[in-house]
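Objective 1b. Sequence-to-structure analysis of Dihydroxy-acid dehydratase.
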Amino acid sequence: MRKSPEELRSARWFGPADLRSFGHRSRAMQMGLAPEEWRGKPIIGIVNTWSDINPCHTHLRARAEDVKRGILMAGGLPIELPAISVSESFQKPTTMMYRNFLAMETEELLRSHPIDGAVLLGGCDKSTPGLTMGAISMDIPCIFVPAGPMLRGHFQGKTLGSGSDSWKYWDELRAGTITEEDWAGVEAGIARSHGTCMTMGTASTMTAIAESVGLTLPGGSSIPAADSGHIRLCSESGRRIVEMVWEDLKPSKILTKQSFENAIAVAMAMGCSTNAIIHLIAMGRRAGLDVSLDDFENYSRRVPVIGNVRPTGSQYLMEDFFYAGGIRALMGNIREHLHLDCITVTGKTVAENIEGARVYNDDVIRTQDRAIYREGSLAVLKGNLSPDGCVIKPGAMDQKFLKHSGPALVFDDYPSMKKAVEDENLDITPDHVLVLRNAGPQGGPGMPEWGMLPMPKKLLKMGIRDMLRLSDARMSGTSYGACVLHVSPESYVGGPLALLRTGDIVTIDVDARRIDMEVSDEELAARRAAWVPPPKRFERGYGWMFSQHIQQAHIGADFDFLRTDFGAPVSEPVI
Ligand code: FES
Ligand code: MG
C-alpha cells in the first residue's frame, strides 16, 4: 500500500486552506521555494551531525549535499537539520553524557518540523546510537548513513590504528623503549583523513550494528570516508528514503527481536567494542523490545570472532575489511546465525541484501573454523561484585587472566589513581587487581571511557603489559587488556563495588562467567551499613537533569522518561 500525497505528514503543514498553513507556505516561499517544490512531495529531514570540532564528521557538510541530490532526483524535498555532533575527540567529561541529548534532539527535530522521512548523518561513536534512538522513538521512515572509517594511519613504514596504537606507543614511551621524537611521529601519522576511527572501535561497531539491524543500505558501513563510493552511498540513500516514505517503511516495521539478534551476532563476529552492549540495549528498548545482557551472553557463546580487525584482530583495519568484501561478506560467513528473512531499509530481506557477497581476503574475513577467537567478542560476568552484570573482552586480553585471583588495589577517583600508577615504588604486583570506582553513569558522570586503567609504571618496566583491571566505567572500543567494565549497579549509587577494599581478594572466572570478591556476606552487610553516599554532582542545568534520570548500564543508560513504556505516547502536533 503506497501512501497518497494527501497522507504525507508534511501535508498537515502545507495543505490546509487556513491561516496557519498560509504562514508555512509564505515562509517556504521566503526561502525561495516554489509550491511545485513541496506540493505532493515527501519532505526529507537530513539530520546532520557535522561540526567544525568533529574531525570524524568533517566531510558530512559536503555529504549532506550529495544526500540532497539523491532526494531531489527521486522527487523529494530535502531539509537539512543540524544536530549536536557528540565529538568523541573533544567533548568532556565524555560524549556519553550527550548521547541521550542527541537522541532527544533528533526525535524532537523530526516531530516538530514538517518532516516525512529522515536521513541520519553520523558515525563518531555516540552519534550512531543517539541518532537512531531518536528516530526509532519518532518512528517515521529513516536511513542511517555512516560517516565511514578514516584511512589507515602510518608511522615509520608501519600501519597505525586509531586509539589502539596511541595506548600501545604511550606504554612504550613510559617504559622507555621509544623516544619523544618517535612519539611525535605517531601523533602526526595516526589520523590521516576525515572519517571515524578505523579500528573496530565503537564507531565501526555501531555503524555495523546500524546496518545489520536493517537501518543502513547494504555494505554502507564498510565504505571508507575518503572513498568516492561513500559519496554514492549518500545520494543512493537520498533516493531510497523518498521511496521509503511512499512505502511507509518505518523503524517499527524493520526492527524486531530477530533484527536485533542479527545485530548482536554481527557485533560478536566483528570483535565489537564493549560499548555495543549499552547502545544496542538502549536502541532495543526504544523499539519496545526486550534486548538484554542475556542476549549478548547467548550469542557470545555461539558466534566466533571472524573479522580480523584490530584491536581483537592482529593487524588489519577497516580499510582492509572493506577491500576484503566488507560487512556483507562477513554476514555471508555467519549466515546460520542470522535471521535471513528480516526486512531492512531496502524493503528486501537480509538474505537478498547479502546475496552474491564474496570474501576477497580470507585472512581479514575468516571462516568460522579459522576464527580469530573461538567465542564471541564479549563476555557478561555476574557475581557478588556485580549482581546486574559487567563485561569483559576475552579475545583482546592476556589469556592467563581468564581465571585469576588477586588482591584489590582500590581508587575512588581517577586523578589519585593516575598519580599512583606513575609511582615506581607503588605497592603492587602483577597479580594485583587494579580497581577504579565512581566512574559509572552517575559517578563519572556519564560513564567515561576510563576502563582501560593505565598500567602501573613499575609493572611496565618489568616488561608486563597486561593485568586484571576493574571499574564501573566504559572503555574505548579501540582499547584492549584484561579490563572488567560496566560494573552494575555502579559504586556511586551504592553497588557492591562501593564496598570493596584494598587487599580484598577478587576472583574472576570468565568461562564460568563469574566475578566475586572473597568477602563474607556478614562483612559486606557491616560495610554497607557504614557506607555514606557521595554528594550530588550537579545542582542545575543539563547535568542535573542527567543525574535525575540516567539509568544503569545493564539496561542501556537511557533516561527513564525516554523509555517507550514511560507514560502515554507523545502525540503529533495538532495545529
Ligand atoms: Fe570519532 Fe573515534 S573519535 S570515531
Ligand atoms: Mg571511541
